[in-house]
Amino acid sequence: MNMLESQDCLVLAEDVAGQAVGVVHAIRPAALDHLADLVGEAGARFASLAGFAARYGQVQLLPGADGHVATVLLGVGEEKDGADPFVFGVLPDSLPPGLWRVSAPADVDAADIALGFCLGAYRMPAFGRDVEPPATAGARLVVDTAGLAAGEMAQCMNLARSLINTPPNLMGPDDLATAAAAALGPLDVQVQVIRGTRLEKEFPTLFHVGNGSERAPCVVEARWRGSTATDEAPLISLAGKGVCFDTGGYDIKPASSMLRMKKDMGGAAIMLALARLIVLRDLPVRLELRLGCVENSVSGRAMRPSDVVVTRSGLTVEIGNTDAEGRLVLCDLLHAACEHQPDLLVDAATLTGAARVALGPDVPALFANDDDVGAAFVTAGHACGDPLWRLPLWPGYRKWLSSPVADLNNISSKPMAGAITAALFLENFVSPDVRWVHIDTYGWNDTSRPGRPEGGESLGLRAAYEGILRIFNVGDRMHR
Fold it and tell me: In degrees rounded to 5, what are phi and psi of residue 417?
């Protein structure tokens, strides 16, 4: 399965000279009084009789004089405070085949139009002999170079989506490592996979989590340097939780809670996609990526409640619950990253149900040990329509992670603030002088909406990328 298919739903404007190109007018309700100025009196009357009210995602095809559709109206709803590319995701399935361009209000960025179009054109991978992903109608969007760059962003987001959507029997730890090598290796990124006795020695806590599965755990380490990056260029380190399936271990989940556990490697998928985007955009930085690829299973070798593990940092952890395995996967990765003194450390994980209770499925929880960095990520997420909400690393809850037999317990002694205590657990493995961001994401769309089909989702990816640009005041190759 090719998870890096090109965005063939886009075509550069200079390549369609002389060809017929239809137009989509993106309309807000306030502009309906002037609709005739765009589509003529007859077109405006037709739209009115058809009930077009410029509601969010509403599409209206307008017949031309020859009976063919050459003009389309798209409702984008009221003006929003922040970007919203997803509304343009309705277009690939709504437009007749052919070439189309979008005319939008001045406050809508052309890159957001292309991004939303590509996200709406995404199809979940199909694996049966007689099952093919539904094809789009053959509509293609005419864009400029900024639009093509947005297609590149969409390709990375769709890579994360497809990795998350892959059935768990086809996406074990080795499969995730292979996918990482396929996504980064051709871009001249140095990729190595750590397994076996070396893994047990260097990432002992992660090894303890994954040792219960017949599919052995591994860690992906990748390194890259931008073409203009010097030895003093910022070092950005990324880490992702890649639990390819989570049974909960001996503290086993009920069947209903296991149904979506193929998405428990969503943090690794998102960080891999972010790394690929940074490389494609050739940011003037140094980059490290670490993915913890494991499966949390039940067997004679599986970790048990009350086990005590010595982590890479030397801290000991009592296993209070085997279903709180994600923080055990991440703690060794974070400590390994800090040994290289990165200028910024970012991790992502589908870590806690508590974050979803607090913020719902669409807004990942953000934790940061630096206020300026936290603010930059939140502001960036709002600006690009990929929102994050900051929760505190509240020091008063640290004592809830105490253990009578180890330095830490992997779960809290209190049934409250689960996302915060999980982040506080991770903070123990981050050097105080390293700026750190932790994203607790859902990685999934429960239902289909414009540009956001049901299934795996790359929540937090764009916010993290834009946050990095803001923090280091750098531009990518498209905006230098």
Answer: 55, 45
